[in-house]
Amino acid sequence: MKYFVLLAGYGEMRTWDELTPEEQEAGIARHVAFGEACAARDGVEIVSAEALGDGSSATTLRTRGGQMTVTDGPFAEAAEHIGGYYLLDAPDLDTVIELCRILPAYDIDIRPVIDTP
Amino acid sequence: MSLLVARTRRLDLVEDALAEAFARAAERWPLDGMPANPEAWLYTSARRLVIGRLRSEAVAGRKAPLLAVRPDWSPPDDDGDRLPDERLHLILLCCHPALAPESRSALALRLVIGTSTDEIARLFLVPTPTMAARLTRAKKKIATAGIPLGAPVADELTVRLDEVCRTIYLAFTAGYTPGSGADLLRPDLAGEAVRLATVLRQLCPAATQVRALWALLVLQHSRRDARVLDGRLVTLAEQDRTRWRQDEIEAGLVALGTLDQAEGYSEELRLQAAIAAEHVRVPHASDTDWPRIADVYRRLELLTGSPVVGLNRAVAVAESEGAEAGLAVLAGLDASLRTHHRFAAVCGDLAHRAGDLDLAAASYRTAIELAGNDVERAHLRERLADVESAGG
């Protein structure tokens, strides 16, 4: 199965910009460790992964009554702290949860990807 | 069932298919004769039904791609690091933390024990349609989120044991709660729960909540042969104590004796086991140490804040200090309990003993209205008749 792992918020951590260079380095080290753990695990593969620009860089499109409007984003306050994502191929949810423990302590949303034939 | 779920991860389909397979068996077996291996027959016909259903879903899926849920055919990794009991796998799956807490125990009861949705709804004090929707959501989540059927890693197992213990205890309680309709007790269902608890204890011998659960269940279950006589419920005080299983009582007391004061759910189970132990360790009902039981209920009420525990404390206080003292405890309990038939029944008993016949009669009438079980209703009607004749 494919899983979309959304790094949805910073939880108890400060946002990336507020971290000291050492803390940022430690954070990056955890992402590296996560990548290594995924590579080492049977049946797990990182299909794609990106860090995203912060909420202030977001543009929101909405279509209402057939009319599309373009506004400053993000679409919801909660989405302001989305930091990035991983798209993983993994055998099941427990494997994904176990691997995510390696990442920095983000608030994470895990969604299964639905196959569109 | 576990086997089919492991293959397809589609609890919803497997459950329906098994029901269908049983229905077909009921039609065919009397005509064709019993197959040599009934379980294999059921498995095979259920599997065919699941496959058929998945195929038609796949077709529907191509027509409406965005709404389709992928039927996942990849068999889960079987790396040997699995628990020996299939039903426990299923219970761990049902108790997965990614499922809504209010769904877990209900799902395990439905799928592991086979309790009806009606019955589960009654146990959880919600309407049947609410419970049915809850179960459907949970089954769907298991399939779409890819929650695996199998043993969690060691750390996770510890975290998930509390929820598993709750599930097993609820299943056990369902067996000894007179249900709706004419069914009285189902000690076989409680026995299944004991079996699960025993397996769990073998797997996790150091886990305090599991040990406390086992002690509690074994002590309670030791009285099963004395609970019903001639189709009637027998109260604890009136039970024939020679029919209690002494070997089980001893084993339960030994297990309880090894437990120290703990916290959280472990302590809750330990206190309940301590209460059960007080009842079964004395040879006559008149020897029961009610002040001690009332005290343990008080600690349990502080720990859990449960109004049902308060109800039991009221009974224990009435036994040790008199019916008026028990009624005073009842008066202080949470109002949510007043629509529960047991509250009304207890209130009727205590009022009867305290000599308040009007309150007793009114309470019994309320209890008769609220009771979901024929046998219990009949029992309540008798008590109401006693009160009415005493009132002259």
Question: Can you give a write-up of this model?
Answer:
The complex is a heterodimer of chains A (117) and B (392). With 117 residues, chain A is of the alpha+beta class. Chain A has one domain (2-112): Alpha-Beta Plaits, CATH 3.30.70. Chain A is built from two helices and six strands; from the N terminus they run βαββββαβ. Chain A has helices spanning 21-40, 93-100, and strands at residues 2-9, 45-51, 59-64, 67-72, 84-89, 107-112. In chain A, the strands form two sheets. Chain A has a four-stranded antiparallel beta sheet, with helices on one face. In chain A, strands 3-4 form a two-stranded antiparallel ribbon. The longest helix of chain A is centred in the N-terminal third of the chain and has 20 residues, at 21-40. The radius of gyration of chain A is 16 Å and the shape is flat. The two termini of chain A are 14 Å apart. A two-stranded antiparallel sheet of chain B has the order 1-2. In chain B, α10 packs antiparallel against α11 (246-257) and α14 (307-321) runs antiparallel to α15 (323-331). Helix content of chain B is 69%, strand content 1%. Among the domains of chain B are: 1-69, no CATH class; 82-198, no CATH class; 205-288, no CATH class. Chain B has helices at 2-8, 11-32, 38-63, 86-94, 101-113, 117-123, 128-145, 154-176, 187-203, 208-221, 246-257, 264-280, 290-304, 307-321, 323-331, 341-354, 357-370, 374-391, and strands spanning 228-229, 232-233. Mean pLDDT of chain B is 81; it is low at 59-84. The relative contact order of chain B is 0.06. Chain B has 392 residues and is mainly alpha-helical. Chain B is built from 18 helices and two strands. The interface between A and B is medium-sized, with 17 and 22 residues.
